[in-house]
């Protein structure tokens, strides 16, 4: 016999209270879910914001710095920049830009005479040495799987320091924006860089070079009479400047010693005397990106002297161009070992002189650039050289680029950043 299913009803005769749970249980379940969500959210926020937080990962498994870590790296980069600026741009002022909270990137204006690219190079030198990996207590600031900070230039000519994809330091250089904006673009290939040595004796050659349809960097003698107006022309016209540093030359065949000029670096100098000479020269050409050697066949052949100079140049953000006035020069090699951005001259434009010979040398430099990707040619402000530059047709069609673009390209290569996507 089938037993009838008995379903006892509530006292009022209804049957809804017999359903499992009922509205009270649903409310309790909802409240518990909300409390659990709040607990999880609070725990996540604590993990992200706590000082010395762990390295988190994003949806792709890539490391993401916790907020506390990011702020610490920002402050460390800020300290590093403040330590570096007086050595690299001693005549400049650092002004804080208002309107940003303590949880955002630090924004500054750097005002005064100097070479902004040198500050970027000096910071890059420090970053390449992984200074940020060691904290004040000797502990690790960055985990091994978190990238070191990197530097980049924006299309507005602003320098940004980025940690884990987040901008933490922003430097503005009023008056330099147009020149610095070119650094945000990748280096073209083939490319040719032109440098004019022995500048600063007169203003007119600088004005002639400024009127050319392609850029030429000016290498100024530190004690030349027109060095200051030439630097002003260079700044107004977006031209790069180098210090044309006098260095000891080899004796001539007749035994006489060529005079490289006042303030020259000599092989018998100790480190103190060499540093004093370099400091005095740089003070006369504060907008210089770096230096190349005037004469110097005696100095650049001495490994010991070049190593001392490389040690003195480190930390100043200097680009060093070896003019290669002799075979087996030790200048570039010593700078590379010290971690300094450096390059060597490939072609002399006016040795021998003559307009047709300079035109032929320009074509040679362009062909070399096409063959190897980049070439650096050095000339001198002779009338024949200036005429040749005005007449040159660049039949090879290579890009003549400002020196600063090549320098920054080299710095990125050294840091392993060239071509890296943002």
TrEMBL record:
Signal peptide: none annotated. GO terms for biological process: carbohydrate metabolic process. InterPro entries: Divergent_DAC, Glyco_hydro/deAcase_b/a-brl. It holds the Pfam family Polysacc_deac_2. Transmembrane segments: none annotated. Coiled coil: none annotated. This is Putative periplasmic protein YibQ, distant homology with nucleoside diphosphatase and polysaccharide deacetylase. The lineage of its organism: Bacteria, Pseudomonadati, Thermodesulfobacteriota, Desulfovibrionia, Desulfovibrionales.
């Amino acid at each position: 016999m089938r037993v009838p299913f008995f379903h006892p009803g509530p006292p009022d005769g209804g049957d809804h209270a017999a359903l499992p749970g009922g509205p009270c249980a649903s409310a309790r379940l909802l409240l518990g879910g909300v409390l659990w969500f709040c607990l999880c959210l609070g725990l996540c926020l604590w993990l992200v914001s706590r000082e010395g937080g762990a390295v988190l990962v994003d949806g792709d498994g890539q490391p993401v710095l916790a907020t506390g870590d990011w702020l610490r790296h920002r402050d460390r980069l800020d300290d590093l920049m403040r330590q570096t600026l007086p050595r690299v741009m001693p005549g400049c002022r650092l002004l804080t830009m208002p309107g940003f909270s303590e949880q955002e990137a630090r924004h500054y204006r750097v005002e005064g005479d100097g070479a902004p690219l040198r500050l970027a190079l000096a910071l890059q030198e420090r970053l390449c040495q992984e200074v940020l990996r060691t904290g004040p207590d000797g502990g690790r600031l960055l985990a091994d799987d978190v990238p070191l900070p990197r530097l980049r230039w924006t299309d507005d000519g602003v320098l940004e320091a980025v940690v884990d994809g987040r901008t933490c330091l922003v430097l503005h250089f009023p008056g330099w924006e147009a020149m610095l904006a070119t650094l945000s673009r990748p280096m073209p290939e083939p490319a040719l860089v032109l440098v004019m040595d022995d500048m600063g004796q007169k203003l007119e050659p600088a004005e002639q070079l400024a009127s050319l349809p392609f850029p030429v960097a000016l290498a100024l003698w530190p004690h030349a009479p027109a060095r200051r107006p030439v630097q002003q022309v260079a700044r107004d016209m977006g031209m790069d400047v180098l210090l044309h540093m006098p260095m000891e030359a080899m004796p001539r065949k007749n035994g006489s010693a060529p005079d490289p000029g006042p303030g020259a670096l000599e092989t018998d100098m100790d480190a103190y005397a060499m540093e004093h000479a370099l400091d005095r020269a740089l003070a006369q050409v504060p907008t210089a990106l770096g230096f190349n050697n005037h004469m110097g066949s005696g100095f650049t052949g001495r490994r010991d002297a070049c190593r001392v100079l490389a040690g003195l140049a480190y930390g100043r953000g200097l680009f060093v161009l070896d003019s290669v006035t002799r075979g087996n020069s030790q200048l570039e090699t010593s700078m590379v070992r010290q971690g300094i951005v450096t390059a060597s001259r490939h072609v002399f434009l006016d040795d021998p002189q003559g307009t047709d010979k300079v035109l032929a040398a320009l074509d040679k430099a362009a062909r070399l650039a096409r063959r190897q990707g980049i070439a650096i040619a050095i000339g001198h402000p002779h009338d024949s050289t200036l005429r040749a530059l005005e007449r040159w047709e660049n039949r090879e069609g290579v890009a003549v680029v400002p020196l600063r673009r090549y320098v920054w390209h080299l710095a990125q290569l050294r840091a392993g950043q060239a071509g890296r996507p943002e």
